[in-house]
Write a structure and sequence with these properties.
- This protein has 125 residues and is mainly α.
- 27% of the residues lie in helices and 0% in strands.
């Protein structure tokens, strides 16, 4: 989903719907084990869902709270029983280790331009 801020957007005073109901419907539509990807622009801490209308942004915690309240998990690759100190091949954790997933992008002329366009002077090192 691109834009979880949209439920906070009220063009002309008209609501686009109930955010909690939207997330419940997403959960209903997913098959067991299905995943949901949410991407949006980060709003400052304390902005709440109202920032969706003013800034077209949403706080990460607002989206996470709505998703988790509807029954989704954000710790997909975490295993609380993994002591994190055993080899991944140890029989007691093999196939059940905590993992992380990151998305990276190589900086180049196009990303440098995009960085400059949002107020930065140069891409971060």
């Amino acid at each position: 989903m691109q834009g979880p801020h949209e439920p906070g957007f009220t063009p002309g005073g008209e609501s686009l719907g109930d955010p909690a109901a939207s997330f419940r419907e997403i959960v209903h539509a997913l098959k067991p084990g299905g995943v949901f990807l949410a991407i949006d622009h980060i709003a400052p801490h304390g902005a709440g869902l109202d920032a969706g209308g003013m800034l077209q942004r949403v706080e990460e915690r607002v989206t996470t709270t709505m998703a988790e309240s509807a029954g989704l998990r954000s710790d997909l690759l975490k295993n609380a029983d993994d002591p994190l100190t055993n080899s991944v091949f140890a029989p007691e954790v093999q196939g059940k280790t905590s993992q992380f997933m990151m998305l990276y992008q190589k900086w180049g002329s196009a990303t440098a331009f995009a960085w400059s366009a949002v107020g930065g002077t140069t891409p971060p090192d």
